[in-house]
Amino acid sequence: MDDKQLLWEKVPLSERIMAGLVDIVIAVLISLFPKIGWMFGVIYLLAKDSLSFLNGQSFGKKIFNLRTIALPHYASLSGWPEKSIIRGLVQVIPVLNIIDLYYLITKKVRIADKWAETRVIRNQDWEAKGSSM
């Protein structure tokens, strides 16, 4: 394994789950707005890792100082919104999100990360490598 592959393995499972829970709570709060809130909640879940105003981090990842990067470029998802949507689709489809959680717990990687070719790493590791690895 090279140095880049080791970066994403350092993120504890508990931090990833807590960041995900923060994002789910935010999506639920957004969806409480009358009539169209549910659409914005779903949009947030789909695009949360590619939001440029958050520098390519979701609110949950920002709180826990994590970042999702696009492989093989090791770049922020703010430049790769389609990868964020693939990851988000797995989260909003009921059967897939259960399978995804199982893979995260047992294999330490989400199927969404495999399908979207992404990894979750510590933000400071990404910044230390010059943001473009």
What's the main sheet like? Answer: 3 strands, antiparallel
Distance between the termini: 16 Å
Assess the beta-strand content as a share of residues: 5-15%
Whole-number average pLDDT?
86
Order of adjacent strands in the largest pleated sheet: 2-1-3
Computed over alpha carbons, the radius of gyration is: 14 Å
User: What's the SSE pattern?
Assistant: HHHHEEHHHEH
The shape is globular
Q: Please tally the helical runs, counting DSSP H or I stretches of 4 or more residues.
A: 8
Number of spatially distinct domains: 1
Portion of residues within helices: 55-70%
Structural class: mainly alpha
Flag low-confidence runs: none
In total, the number of strands is: 3
Provide a concise account of the structure shown:
By secondary structure, the chain is mostly helical. It has helices at residues 3-9, 13-31, 37-47, 59-63, 81-92, 94-107, 111-116, 123-128; strands at residues 66-70, 75-76, 118-122. It contains 8 helices and 3 strands; from the N terminus they run H-H-H-H-E-E-H-H-H-E-H.
Could you please describe the fold and organization of this structure?
- With 133 residues, the chain is mainly alpha-helical.
- Helices cover 60% and strands 9% of the residues.
- It has a three-stranded antiparallel β-sheet with strand order 2-1-3.
- The radius of gyration is 14 Å and the shape is globular.
- The model has no long low-confidence stretch (mean pLDDT 86).
List keywords for this structure.
60% helix; membrane; mainly alpha; 133 residues; globular; 8 helices; RDD family protein; single chain; 3-stranded antiparallel beta sheet; 3 strands
